[in-house]
From TrEMBL:
Name this polypeptide is given: SDR family oxidoreductase
Stored Pfam families: adh_short_C2
Family of the protein in this entry: Belongs to the short-chain dehydrogenases/reductases (SDR) family.
Membrane-spanning ranges: none
Length: 274
């Protein structure tokens, strides 16, 4: 047990420099929450490997991240495939010789009516968000142990509060929370911090798609749909990707060092239960 008991003092003025010089892998970083996390970490002085399928979009995020003076490597690949996991680890070790941080954020579970969702959608949903994350954790673990590193898994509030169109996303997120809890236990022994964040509704392409579909069904415009959904779900607001990114930065920094195995609801009050 080493890393999570380290007591690095804060800088004068409240700045937390504990992330400076660390190396992160961030998945699903070509847009949305993952891109915001990559940029937030770059501002904190973290070098990174960013992963998703769309190379052009990854390059544009990488360029913005580099403007903060950090080094960024791009891996364009499909994380449902085992090879993308090994390419990602190999690229990180070749470029930076270590991995301190792993943020599993990539996810694309299909919404829809339970009876209309084919097996292939279930396999894709679990294949990317659960198996992709699990495989990356397993492949990165030996080097995370060496660096007393940290894992953050981005799951989702639907894991605890399903809706009727979230047949796949809900169990995927629940499984990722449970896996994170398990891995945190191993992390206590091995000196790796592991935590899980459950966003509620966050303004990204994924939410736009949902609003567009549901607004069509109800024959209202998407802005009205957003308002109606907020009221129906009884939430305080719709989140921005930067809200989740700021939380990830806190969890990963030494200020978050007491967090181990935490399942953090960042959902504007969507989760009503204890
Ligand atoms: N937005 C929300 O309201 C919300 C709520 C709860 C949880 N979440 C979770 O937060 C995470 C990010 O969501 P988001 O809203 O930012 O989604 P998004 O805007 O749709 O972005 C998803 C990211 O995952 C990548 N991705 C998708 N399929 C992939 C694959 N097969 N291999 C590798 N990368 C892949 C996408 O890049 P490419 O297409 O380039 O591959 C993209 O970078 C997801 O896990 C999501 O379930 C989001």
């Amino acid at each position: 047990m080493t890393g999570h008991t380290k007591q690095e003092p804060r800088l004068a003025g409240g700045e937390d420099a504990s992330l400076r010089g660390k190396v992160a892998i961030v998945t699903g970083a070509s847009r949305g929450i993952g891109a915001a996390i990559a940029l937030e970490l770059a501002q904190a002085g973290v070098d990174s490997v960013i992963v998703a399928r769309d190379e052009a979009m990854l390059n544009s995020v990488a360029e913005r991240a580099r403007s903060f003076g950090t080094r960024v490597e791009v891996v364009a690949g499909d994380l449902r495939n085992v090879e993308t996991v090994s390419w990602t680890i190999d690229r990180a070790l070749a470029a930076f010789q270590k991995i301190d941080i792993l943020v599993n954020n990539a996810g694309a579970t299909t919404r829809g009516h339970f009876l209309e969702l084919p097996d292939s959608d279930w396999e894709d949903g679990f294949g990317l968000k659960f198996f992709g994350a699990m495989r990356l954790c397993r492949a990165a673990w030996p080097t995370l142990v060496q660096t007393s590193g940290s894992v953050v898994n981005i799951a989702g509030a639907g894991g605890r509060t399903p809706d009727i169109y979230f047949a796949i996303g809900s169990p995927v997120n629940a499984a990722l929370n449970s896996f994170s809890k398990f891995l945190a236990e191993l992390g206590i022994r091995d000196g790796v911090r592991v935590n899980c964040i459950n966003p509620g509704l966050v303004r990204t392409d994924r939410l736009t798609k949902r609003l567009t579909l549901e607004s069509r069904e109800r024959r209202i415009d998407p802005a009205e749909m957003e308002y109606q959904l907020s009221r129906e779900l009884r939430i305080a607001r719709i989140g921005e990707p930067e809200d989740i990114a700021a939380l990830v930065r806190f969890v990963l920094s030494d200020r978050g060092r007491l967090l181990q195995g935490a399942a953090i609801d960042a959902d504007a009050g969507l989760t009503k239960t204890l």
